[in-house]
């Protein structure tokens, strides 16, 4: 289903609107954000040079680093009195990326998310159990406002709370579930253990995103929960969830809200724009945002854009394929974005730990686990002593209270600063692999 008339825009009409909005945005950022004025000048481009949509390639890119350099509010185009909401997502090191919204931005976002629900067949008669996290993360409030805009009843349960989730699915008769795909499967397993028969629940559809998933996972979720599973994409910097979404009619690629965002695919190595059908990094320009517009933002997500064509849902907006990877090292662990450099930052603050570490990620049962394997310093190892294992190798005396305390403190700091729960394994000095070239810090054993 379509939520609003603008979703049906296509061809020249859409292009005209996009160009008008792009020109306005470009002027806005040039006049109000020092970073953009400088970046435009470095590229030798002025707002008036943008005469057609193709001219977008004349504009500079924006990266996460640029946002970090202008932390916290340097990229905002409006004074604080106009900002009504602030969200944030992980940055590559300690500082998060800050995203501001005016009242109109919140209204725009609500409409975009209402489109997502409508496209998934949700109506005002539905009950939406919103299990995306509420807070700085955009998932919870983004889905909340969208479902309300559509007129559906929202159950703002937020993430976690598995038993309660399962109880409410039955008692409240939720017909739509919004959460990460891994959490949907986790709920199924937990429900099964409690004797829940999902085929008897009123649940019809789940709108899933915030982490990579596969067609195989879709099939599994749809079969096990007896529902339709719909893919939803977005990122905080651009607006949050609602950048693109699948329609229930086709479930083949996610329609990009092209009246609000201009999408490009580039070669991540050269920055060159690639034609429709090419695999590369998704770059997005926001053309209606007021508080925090971004020009050619490098999402680092790898995908393919398909040429706009009329879809059976009625939309002609271009579709993007599933995100198949990232062109940087960001990891998504239970929906939390984690950069190895953030973990490294925390590790290096501990004088009892050497800088040698690796991150091991597994999918155990349904959920991702992150284990930090890190070496103790010689001094620390000497102070707690070691034991000889059955295979003749030496290991730290793990039962020593100092070892326990160190592991506990590292876990706690990582949870506090990055927001992800980890396991910590302490190793004897010089026992983790060394690398001659680029260190391989991440061992991702997940099969999605
Ligand atoms: O994850 C926003 C969101 C919330 C999207 C709820 C969908 C549903 P961030 O925390 O800023 O925002 O993380 C954005 O998550 O760049 C992708 O790498 C990844 N991602 C988001 N949706 C998908 C998806 C939210 N459907 C980052 N498939 C993005 C694959 C996704 N990856």
Question: What does the model show?
Answer:
The chain has 448 residues and is of the alpha/beta class. It has two domains: 1-327, ANL, N-terminal domain (Rossmann fold), CATH 3.40.50; 331-444, ANL, C-terminal domain (GMP Synthetase, Chain A, domain 3). Helices cover 30% and strands 26% of the residues. Strands 3, 4, 5, 6, 7, 8, 9, 10, 11, 12, 13, 14 and 15 form a 13-stranded mixed β-sheet that branches. Strands 22-19-18-23 form a four-stranded mixed β-sheet. It has a two-stranded antiparallel ribbon with strand order 1-2. Helix 7 packs parallel to helix 8 (215-225) and helix 9 crosses helix 11. The radius of gyration is 24 Å and the shape is globular. It binds 5'-O-[hydroxy(phenylacetyl)phosphoryl]adenosine. 5'-O-[hydroxy(phenylacetyl)phosphoryl]adenosine (DLL) binds next to helix 5, strand 7, strand 8 and strand 13.
Topology:
Elements: H1 11-32, H2 34-43, H3 64-69, E1 83-89, E2 97-102, H4 103-119, E3 127-130, H5 138-150, E4 153-155, H6 162-171, E5 176-179, H7 181-193, E6 205-209, H8 215-225, E7 228-235, E8 240-245, E9 254-256, E10 261-266, E11 273-274, E12 279-286, E13 297-306, E14 319-320, E15 325-326, E16 331-333, E17 336-338, H9 340-347, E18 353-364, E19 367-376, H10 378-384, E20 386-388, E21 394-396, H11 401-418, E22 423-427, E23 442-444
The structure holds 5'-O-[hydroxy(phenylacetyl)phosphoryl]adenosine.
Residues 89, 132, 137-139, 209-212, 231-236, 240-241, 299, 301, 323, 326, 332, 337 line the site of 5'-O-[hydroxy(phenylacetyl)phosphoryl]adenosine.
């Amino acid at each position: 289903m379509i939520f609003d008339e603008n979703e049906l825009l296509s061809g020249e009409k859409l292009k005209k609107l996009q160009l008008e909005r792009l020109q306005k945005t470009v002027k806005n950022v040039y006049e109000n954000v020092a970073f953009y004025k400088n970046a435009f000048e470095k590229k030798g481009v002025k707002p008036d040079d943008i005469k057609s949509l193709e001219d977008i390639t004349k504009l500079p890119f924006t990266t996460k680093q640029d946002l970090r350099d202008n932390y916290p509010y340097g990229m905002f185009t409006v004074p604080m009195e106009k900002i009504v909401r602030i969200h944030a997502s992980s940055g590559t090191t300690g500082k998060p990326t800050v995203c501001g919204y005016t009242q109109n931005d919140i209204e725009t976002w609500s409409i975009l998310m209402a489109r997502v629900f409508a496209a998934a067949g949700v109506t005002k008669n539905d009950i939406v159990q919103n299990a995306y996290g509420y807070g700085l993360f955009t998932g919870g409030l983004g889905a909340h406002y969208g479902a309300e805009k559509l007129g559906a009843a929202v159950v703002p349960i937020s993430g976690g709370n598995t038993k309660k989730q399962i109880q409410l699915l039955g008692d409240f008769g939720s017909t739509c579930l919004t959460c990460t795909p891994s959490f949907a499967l986790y709920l199924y397993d937990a429900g099964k253990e409690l004797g829940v028969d999902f085929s008897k629940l009123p649940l019809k559809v789940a709108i899933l995103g915030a982490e990579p998933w596969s067609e195989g996972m879709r099939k599994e979720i749809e079969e096990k929960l007896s529902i339709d599973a719909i893919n939803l994409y977005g990122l905080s910097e651009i607006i949050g969830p609602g950048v693109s979404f699948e329609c229930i009619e086709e479930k083949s690629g996610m329609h990009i809200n092209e009246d609000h965002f201009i999408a490009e695919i580039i070669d991540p190595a050269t920055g060159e724009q690639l034609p429709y059908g090419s695999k590369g990094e998704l770059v997005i320009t926001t053309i209606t945002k007021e508080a925090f517009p971004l020009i050619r933002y490098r999402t680092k997500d790898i995908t393919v854009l398909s040429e706009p064509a009329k879809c059976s849902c009625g939309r002609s907006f271009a579709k993007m394929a599933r995100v198949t990877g990232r062109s940087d090292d960001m990891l998504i662990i239970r929906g939390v974005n984690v950069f190895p450099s953030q973990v490294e930052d925390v590790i290096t603050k501990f004088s009892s730990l050497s800088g040698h570490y690796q991150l091991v990620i597994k999918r155990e049962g349904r959920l991702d686990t992150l284990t930090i394997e890190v070496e103790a310093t010689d001094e620390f190892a000497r102070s707690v002593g070691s034991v000889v294992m059955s295979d003749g190798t030496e290991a730290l005396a793990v039962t020593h209270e100092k070892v326990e305390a160190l592991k506990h403190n590292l876990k706690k700091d990582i949870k506090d600063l990055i927001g992800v729960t980890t396991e910590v394994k302490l190793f004897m000095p010089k026992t983790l692999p060394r690398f001659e070239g680029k260190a391989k810090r991440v061992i991702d054993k997940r099969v999605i």
